[in-house]
Amino acid sequence: MKIEYMGIKEQGKPFRIVNNKYLKEELETIPEGRYRMTIEKWKKNKSLPQLGYYYACCLPMFLKAAIDAGWELTSIDEADAWLKSIFANRELINKYSGEVISIPALKRQMTTTEFSTFINQVRDHAAEFLGCYIPEPSEQIKINYQNNERSLEGNQGI
User: Would you say the pTM of this structure is higher than 0.90?
Assistant: First the structure.
């Protein structure tokens, strides 16, 4: 059983728990035993729109540009792993030997700001090393359907 509540500490005011009444009620219902209470600073995790933009726009465009540049990537997952290894590495240290290894960070643990920084690094890398412009999330893309319309008109008599 896990109980979670949000708290707020504002300058000059005491720490307060949001919905303190419900916390007290819930604490009254837990069975006897020893418990550990932890308070940690809350961080906003990456958002679903950020993930959508990354998987629907950034990764496919990056993958195509990388393949065009000669990289033998075969999937979105490989492109994602490659990008994490470049821009989202995290170091693990063996406390006994001092050995350090790098592993890709997990996107699920990234905050909104960390994931935004990661995406910007991907966009910059694509532009600088692959010659691929990946549009910003807020940028409108105008798609030219003129060629498709002409080919459809030519095939109508078939």
Answer: no
